[in-house]
Design the sequence.
């Protein structure tokens, strides 16, 4: 075997070993994070915020006309039906101080996401608790509006309210 080939193999082995060690340490860090109560809360918030961002972003893009509700990029079970979710996003009760709930949801879930990825962000915990409390109180009104005023069963809306409730439970149990 030529000397150049041998050096190349050694470099490849060293790089491969370094990648394995790095990946292993990342796995250990992730499992260590999941082993702690605080870590489980942050992982839960991260997953819930990603799902909430997905739903709120979809609503926002449809509301402002950037995408159509029946776009192929959204799974069929999540698409807004003409007589349900589409009716909700344009209803006057789907606004807070004149602003659509959808972009407000994007801001809220982005805040939750930022808190979740910065494990040392205990300073933000009070703000997250307050905002999650407001979203749960608002959810009571919005669910009432869905069933009593608008008379619509919007699965995505109810999913968002459920996400908000779970976020509140996580942050108040921390």
Sequence:
């Amino acid at each position: 075997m030529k000397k150049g080939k041998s050096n190349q193999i050694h470099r490849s082995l060293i790089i491969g070993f370094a990648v394995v060690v790095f990946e292993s340490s990342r796995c250990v860090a992730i499992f260590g994070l999941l082993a702690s109560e605080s870590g489980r809360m942050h992982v839960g918030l991260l997953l819930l915020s990603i799902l909430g961002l997905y739903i709120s972003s979809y609503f926002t893009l449809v509301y402002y006309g950037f995408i159509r509700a029946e776009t192929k990029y959204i799974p069929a079970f999540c698409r807004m039906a003409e007589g349900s979710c589409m009716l909700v996003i344009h209803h006057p009760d789907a606004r807070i101080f004149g602003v659509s709930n959808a972009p407000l949801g994007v801001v809220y879930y982005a805040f939750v996401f930022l808190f979740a990825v910065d494990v040392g962000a205990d300073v933000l915990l009070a703000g997250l608790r307050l905002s999650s409390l407001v979203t749960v109180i608002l959810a009571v009104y919005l669910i009432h509006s869905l069933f009593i005023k608008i008379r619509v069963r919007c699965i995505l809306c109810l999913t968002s309210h459920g996400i908000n409730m779970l976020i509140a439970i996580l942050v108040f149990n921390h």
Remarks:
- Residues 52 and 159 are 9 Å apart (CA to CA).
- The two ends are 60 Å apart (CA to CA).
- The beta strands are 95-96, 99-100.
